[in-house]
Amino acid sequence: MALVFFFLSLGKPRSSLLQGSALGLSALVLVITFHSFSLVLGQPAQLLFFDAYRVDIFSQMFKIVFALGLFIVIYLGQGLKGVVEELKAEYYMFLSLSTLGLVFLSSSVELLTIVISLEISSFSLYVIIPFRFQKGYRQQMEAGIKYVMFGALATGISLYGMSYMFGFAHTTYLAELAPVFPELIKTQPLMVVALILVLGSFFYKLAMFPMHFWAPDVYEGASNETAGFIATLPKVGAVALLLRFASFAGVELNQITGILATFAVLSMVIGNLSALVQEDLKRLLAYSSIAHAGYVMVAILCVSALGFASAIYYIVGYLIMN
Questions:
Q1: Residue-wise pLDDT tens digits, 5-56
Q2: What pLDDT is attached to residue 222?
Q3: How high is the pLDDT of residue 258?
Q4: Could you say which DSSP state residue 49 is in?
Q5: pLDDT tens across 205-231, in order?
Q6: How far is residue 141's CA from residue 132's CA, in Å, rounded to a whole number?
Q7: Is the distance from CB of 197 to CB of 160 less than 8 angstroms?
Q8: What string of DSSP letters covers 277-317?
Q9: Nearest CA among 217, 227, 203 for reference residue 290
Q10: Cα angle, residue 131 at apex, residues 128 and 137 outer, rounded to 5°
């Protein structure tokens, strides 16, 4: 899909051709992800690319959610009225690339693969925020710069935490980290710090305290179509990642549950109280999403099958409603 729009961007295609191609290709993606989900039902998990990429029911289910989200965003944003006319082909290309990064993310079970997947998804969004078209309106530039700056900060913090994790555990694979994680948490206090630093990047995607500052300005500055995408799909990706981490860490996550629960409570309180005084609808949506990040974190912190199922159910409902 991204390649099709790359080649279309080389010419001057009509808006109707772009819209039809986007709807058709996103529908095809949705059909293929449903088919791939049916293929893995009842099958053991498969590992690819030196065991860095895991294909199982969990990953394929999230891929359906990403494909569905992309289709809904394209369907509801027909005509892309909020996007510069000359950049509509590029807009669809970067939207496809961002979704591709999230698809990679749902199957990534190795720290560096996770970082690369996050960056593929994020960089595409950094580019399309300034694509907004509205006469006399320039806040999209400020929104784009803020998103890039906070994104770079979040990535740097996460990589710093990952370097500690690798230093202690001598591996970047989640499956190999899980067995040594409980002992390292007890013997190496810095391991707790490392884990919190790594989670910083996920909090940024989820717009959860303390990495929530960017959301209101970015939502307000971006076009409605872009804000609809940023407000939903990256958050689903963050939940998928957090569930992967929590499932590999298991009950040993309880060592840092207090810290994460504090962040969740602060997200709920700050998000809801700040939303009360907003006069811009998209800023209201942003603070609402900060509060929702706290709610979904509560389900993840249960570290149980029921808690994980609740988190997935919640985030799918959140995606469709937003």
A1: 999 988 888 888 888 898 999 999 999 999 988 888 888 888 899 989 999 8
A2: 84
A3: 80
A4: T
A5: 888 888 888 888 888 888 888 888 888
A6: 9
A7: yes
A8: T--SHHHHHHHHHHHHHHHHHHHHTT-SHHHHHHHHHHHHH
A9: 203
A10: 135
Distances (CA, A) of 225 to 31, 77, 253: 23, 6, 37
For 230-248, the pLDDT digits (tens) are 888 888 988 888 888 777 7
List CB contacts of 319: < 8 A, sequence separation 6 or more. Answer: 65, 68, 69, 232, 233, 235, 236
CA dist 200 and 125 (Å) reads 19
d(CA 252, CA 293): 22
State the pLDDT at residue 4. 92
Question: b/e for 205-235, b at 16 or more Cβ within 10 A?
Answer: bbbbbebbebbbbbbbbbbbbbbbbbbbbbb
> Could you give the CA distance from residue 123 to residue 16 in angstroms, rounded to a whole number?
27
CA atoms within 13 A on the CB side of 199: 24
In percent, the amount of the chain with pLDDT more than 90 equals: 25
Residues of the chain with pLDDT under 50: none
Distance CA 182, CA 134 (A): 53
Residue entry with tokens 């030196």: 50
CA separation for the pair 129, 8 (Å, rounded): 20
Phi and psi at residue 303, in whole multiples of 5°? 45, 55
What's at 32, amino acid-wise? Answer: I
